[in-house]
Amino acid sequence: MADRDTVVLVHGLWTNGWDMRLLQARLAAQGFRVRLFRNRTVTRTVAENAARLHAFLAEQAPEGAHLVGHSLGGLVVLRHLQDHPGDRVGLRLAIAAPFQGSLAARRLAAWRGSRWLLGHSYPQGLDGQGPRAVPAGVRFAVVVGRFPFSLARLVTPDLPSPNDGVVAEVETLLTGEVPRQVIRGHHMGMLFSRHLATLVGDRLRRASLDPPPGHERPPMSDAEKKRGLTLVLTGDGKGKSSSAFGMVLRAAGWNMRICVIQFVKGKWQTGEERAAARLGTIEWHALGDGFTWNTQNPEQDRATSRTIWSLCQERVRSGNFDMVVWDEINFAVGMGWLTGAEVADFIRQEKPPALHLILTGRNASPELVAVADTVTEMVEVKHAFQAGIKATRGIEF
Fold first, then answer.
1. What is the pLDDT of residue 386?
2. pTM exceeding the 0.85 threshold for the entire prediction
3. Which of 208, 230, 256 marks a domain boundary?
């Protein structure tokens, strides 16, 4: 693409782009040529707005551009990819876009007299019936926020956690090799965040440049390709997840493709996730309902775990990774949300031969111990918590 510095912003529902103005100014200050595409979110369908975006690019950015869409705008960006794959686009980045459908929109659509608020944005869009997959080889990234307080929660008090107050992270999932990044911010408020502007700018610059010499991913030898290991890290002692993330760092040093999926630590801001975001090469999904050993809503936890388990299977089947971590999956099995037999059967039958798979969590089931190549049990000899010392930044999170 010749004009890699052009960025087109696509706004969300009920706005005419005013909410993107500060992001536009901050990206311009970073050296990008920024254009705002105004889509008619209520009076036109997502597909119609994607067609208008196609025409806009031909006129405003004939040499090509990056696309950045917020919320409904992210759905327009993905629909544009499906309907106009030949357009010259570098990176497509979606911010808080509910590709799986919006619970808040479904509630509004179900209330008599309020469907007009959504208009034509709902069918094949906010209802989750639009595109939900990214083809191989397409540069697409997702940014999600975490800030669970919003007036929208009056409509959706049962919105799954973690969420940004309007859209849940599980609603932003896509099929395909799509890196994700999490920031602290409200659904719309994050657009005014300097951190988001910096993150978006960094993503766009990386998409515009080829890897510098010496940073290309070295080819794996035949010996390396022959056998990927399955490791189980269990026991009551500290260090299970920490050990897994140490291997993630080591693999990242070899430019390996890595995916981390967490079952129960979704509400915590952790150092390992922040470090992964800085590296920008690790796909990270923290989708659980928060760190807890005493669940208060077992049915929701079970449903959330089944959703995360589906993602675990999809990411392994994709063949896009050299290492995948299922963090705290043993805990999910121990709680009865999953069964050890189904997880072990999937590993035996569908894990790619060269993939390294790491499972963490206490009380690993016999089935998972049996299927693993390496099993390590962390034994607690002494723990600072017993002396009244709370979880420490940089040590526990």
1. 67
2. no
3. 208
